């Protein structure tokens, strides 16, 4: 069993003992963040191409990656960005395999260093198909941070098709799922939530 086997939230609830909650407007308090001209030009060029190809790889490379790299720039490159890395935490519970994207509060890039604060799962189909996998990875990140001596009060996650985004929060053994869905034309709101999720740790740690 691995992260990809958590194909539903029911499996997360049953196998990991997590509590699932739907929360309306969970991230409404996050201020919108304007992206750079560089990002706008990239999305203008790649959006139609990504939609036309419509594979998970194309959407991930052409849409999700540029958005997450923009988040890194907005955080003055003081966060770590990882794509497709192995994140095996507890194979006996299915918490093993690769994560599409990890953002850490540590800028080190040679290896994944705690604390992991945000995870993004890329999909080319329905967002709900990635919620279970993302929730399992968020729980694994919480365990990883605890093990490494950098415990976090919350872990944030997202499932994205590149054009559509759904955000989650893990705290106190509960997975909270924002009922709102964000679209690529709401890029300032998407950036705002992603930047806030990273900076919430840095503010708590007075960094």
Describe this structure in words.
The protein is α+β, with helices and mostly antiparallel strands and 207 residues long. The protein has helices spanning 9-16, 37-53, 56-74, 131-147, 187-204; strands spanning 19-23, 80-86, 98-104, 116-122, 155-160, 164-171, 174-178, 182-183. It has five helices and eight strands. Strands 1, 2, 3, 4, 5, 6, 7 and 8 form an eight-stranded mixed sheet that branches. Helix 1 runs parallel beside helix 4 (131-147) and helix 2 runs antiparallel to helix 3. It is globular and about 45 Å long.
Tally of contiguous helical segments: 5
Order of helices and strands: HEHHEEEHEEEEH
User: What would you call the structural class?
Assistant: alpha+beta
Rounded radius of gyration (Å): 16 Å
Distance between the termini: 38 Å
> Which stretches are low in confidence, meaning pLDDT under 50 for 5 or more residues running?
203-207
| Fraction of residues in H or I helices | 25-40%
Give the overall form: globular
How much is the average pLDDT?
94
What does the secondary structure layout of this molecule look like, with pairings?
Blueprint: H1 9-16, E1 19-23, H2 37-53, H3 56-74, E2 80-86, E3 98-104, E4 116-122, H4 131-147, E5 155-160, E6 164-171, E7 174-178, E8 182-183, H5 187-204
